[in-house]
Automatic annotation (TrEMBL), chain A:
Residues 1-76 form the Carrier domain. It comes from the Bacteria. PROSITE patterns: CARRIER. InterPro entries: ACP-like_sf, PP-bd_ACP. This is Phosphopantetheine binding protein. It comes from Kutzneria buriramensis. SUPFAM superfamilies: ACP-like.
Automatic annotation (TrEMBL), chain B:
This is 3-hydroxybutyryl-CoA dehydrogenase. The keyword NAD applies. Residues 183-279 form the 3-hydroxyacyl-CoA dehydrogenase C-terminal domain. GO terms for molecular function: NAD+ binding; oxidoreductase activity, acting on the CH-OH group of donors, NAD or NADP as acceptor. The record marks H137 as: Important for catalytic activity. Belongs to the 3-hydroxyacyl-CoA dehydrogenase family. InterPro entries: 3-OHacyl-CoA_DH (IPR022694), 3-OHacyl-CoA_DH_NAD-bd (IPR006176), 3HC_DH_C (IPR006108), 6-PGluconate_DH-like_C_sf (IPR008927), 6PGD_dom2 (IPR013328), NAD(P)-bd_dom_sf (IPR036291).
Length: 80, 281
């Protein structure tokens, strides 16, 4: 699975009613609020064994699976 | 800046400790085991990291945690000017803790009780200084909620209220003055709503998702009652409804059996990973 697939799977596992593409703003759907952003941070750090720097902890980095993928891939390539 | 004691390092104690430390005070946070306290420190660290993303100020987690010391047992509170009690919403537990606070605290320490529904006058009656006990009903998550209910008990003095208002102001909180009655304003209404929402699921009228969707979609609430229950803690909801039921001796507060079963099964909401919904820890 690609990074995007893994992130989308996490979101739809938690919100089965979500039919989302990788560019959909999940916080505009109406039923996902910022508390889920915290869950996303914890999931991403565990799933991809990375630590997201504190100044990247901005809601805009977690709006879409695409934004999260860019964040994760950027951090992983920085590590390698 | 003062030394502030915080008793109970659960959902509320963690948030209260963070907000008090953010206000510049030193915090002594106590609970019943080192394990709970270690989890609490980790949670405060995490919540400080996420603060800006959740719409709060940018916080340095190390700086905030440096102001928080933790300890098992209430003896560590002897030097506190003011103590905020946030233990489990259960009369026996609250009674024991307030009896012990009465033993370990000097007579001029202010005691703030944070409770969902227990009358402040009843809590104050446990110790020998009811005049220094006052109720503050904090909202959850504490750092994100700017307003609290401020509830004097029957014997609470103006000085106790004054010192409590000063602390709240230093935490960036505003308050609504409410008289002492079980559930105050917020939970007289909210607990009935959540309890009735649980009945709808219990009776199979609608799923939790559908109940919440009605409140969000039709009423424009940011969160539905059952996701709110998961945030508060399903056990805490049950205990609060039981307090209302016992206090008013009125069957309209009859607790939903589903809340009892979920509490017994450990489905306590976000804090346990599962409630009406399932969460990833
Ligand atoms: N959860 C909410 O949304 C919310 C909101 C407002 C007020 N409250 C009230 O705040 C209080 C705390 O609620 P919570 O949600 O944090 O509960 P919680 O179950 O998450 O935490 C309670 C904590 O108290 C500790 N405790 C129990 N006995 C103790 C003792 N003898 N000494 C020290 N610590 C002890 C427990 O170990 C636990 O860590 C309750 O009275 C509740 O009604 C809760």
């Amino acid at each position: 699975m690609t990074t995007t697939d893994r992130i989308l799977a996490f979101i739809t596992n938690r919100f089965p009613q979500a039919e989302i593409s990788d560019v959909e703003d999940i916080f505009s759907l109406g039923y996902i609020n910022s508390l889920f952003a915290m869950e996303l941070v914890m999931f991403i750090e565990k799933e991809f064994t990375i630590t997201i720097p504190n100044d990247e902890l901005r809601i805009d980095n977690f709006r879409t699976a695409k934004a999260m993928t860019e964040l994760v891939d950027g951090l992983r390539s920085a590590v390698v | 800046m003062a030394v502030i004691g915080v008793v109970g390092a659960g959902v509320m104690g963690i948030g209260v400790a963070q907000s008090v430390a953010t206000g510049g005070h030193d915090v002594v946070l106590v609970d019943t085991s080192e394990e709970i306290l270690a989890d609490a420190r980790a949670a405060i660290y995490r919540n400080c990291r996420m603060s800006r993303m959740m719409g709060g100020p940018t916080l340095d987690p190390d700086e905030i945690l440096a102001r928080v010391t933790t300890a098992v047992g209430l003896d560590a509170l002897a030097k506190a000017e003011l103590v905020i009690e946030n233990v489990t919403e259960n009369w026996e537990i609250k009674r024991e803790v307030h009896a012990e606070l009465d033993r370990v605290l000097p007579a001029d320490t202010v005691v703030v009780a944070n409770t969902s529904a227990i009358p402040i006058t009843r809590i104050a009656s446990v110790g020998s200084h009811p005049e220094r006990v006052v109720g503050v009903h904090f909202m959850n998550p504490v750092p994100a909620k700017p307003v609290v209910e401020l509830i004097p008990g029957f014997h609470t003095t103006p000085e106790t209220l004054e010192r409590t208002r000063d602390l709240l102001a230093s935490m960036g909180k505003r308050w609504v003055d409410v008289k002492d009655a079980s559930g105050f304003v917020s939970n007289r209404v909210l607990m009935l709503t959540i309890n009735e929402a649980a009945y709808l699921v219990h009776e199979g009228v609608a799923t939790a998702e559908s109940v919440d969707e009605v409140f969000r979609g039709c009423f424009g609430h940011p969160m539905g009652p059952l996701e709110t229950a998961d945030l508060i803690g399903v056990d805490t909801i049950l205990y609060s409804v039981e307090v209302l039921y016992e206090h008013y001796a009125d069957s309209k507060y009859r607790p939903c059996p589903l809340l009892k079963q979920m509490t017994d099964a450990g489905l306590h909401g976000r804090k346990s990973g599962r409630g009406f919904y399932t969460y990833n820890s």
